[in-house]
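Internal ticket #5521
Category: modeling
Description: The requester needs a full-assembly model to guide mutagenesis choices. All entity lines are attached below as received. Residue total reported by intake: 333.
Assigned to: D.W.
Attached entities:
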Amino acid sequence: MLHEANASQRESGLRGHAPRFPQACQWTGTVSGKDELLPLGRRHANAQPPPSFHMPDNNELLSLVSSHISNMNIASSPGFDTITPTFIKCATKRVPRHNGRGQENVNVMAPHIIAALFNMLMTQARVHRSWKEAKLTPIFKKGSLTNPGNYRMIAVIGMLYRLYANVLRFIIQEWCVAQQDPRFPVWFLPRSTLQPLFILRHFNPKYYKQAHHDCMLLASTSSRHTIPYPETLTVTVGTIMPLSHASPSILRPPRLVLHR
Amino acid sequence: MPHHLFSVLQDLYYTDEYTLLDGDKQASVQPEFGVKQGCPLSPLLFSIYLIDVDSLAQGVQGALTGIPDSAVP
């Protein structure tokens, strides 16, 4: 009885739209003048003005969503909306290829998802309420079973939310690349979030007591940079790091010698 | 950042909650700071946040904390 009451309460609570963020704006199809009020990051003195921003149109969104659907992990678990990745990923039908012979699998869910995603992303800037709730699952680590501190909390979000966030992530990342600010590529490499901290991690006496310490911070082969090397150098030389614990010799201006 | 993208992000983080279910019982938590756990956007948002960290630390020596006007020397 109690369970049923709770379930109905949960369902009614999850139904419908979530409360709207008060200051959210509607997408009018153009970039508004407010965009100038929200600069992200400090601009370089010689930076080019950012190119104009466009939300992806229907065709771009179709390819974007399709690629993210094909990248879905079937084994990942559904959230509160109980939509499994299999439900979305395996809803395909075989159609003849446009180019060449044979047939290919085309997802039939993608246009419907796009209709929903497109509405929420482009016009309304709001999402369904069930997307805002994440399922918390305690996973036992080790030690005493009765101690709550021995459990790690894992949050599971709905599958459609993850798809939406992936599309959004792609759009924001494209925008970051289009800024052509040399600071940006350093901070969001696809490989690791903590890549910028790599420089600080190598900033220890073991390295800077050596002869070429100015360049040792940059020249380690473990960094695996995917961006042009001179840009990294100019950015990193301009970066201010806490130097109170460093040796005095590191305070002199760095010699711009590359040691790969 | 384009204003529309920004308001989309703001809306994602507005009134979100974590719910812990145990049989009949449930408890929910409304987070007030930080990025969502398990969200594909979180690493990117954290990286964007990190861009301006050194401007917060302009002329400050030692470690910064999240509370304004307090730094660990």
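Resolution: model delivered.
Comment from assignee: Residues 6 and 45 of chain B are 11 Å apart (CA to CA).
Ticket closed.
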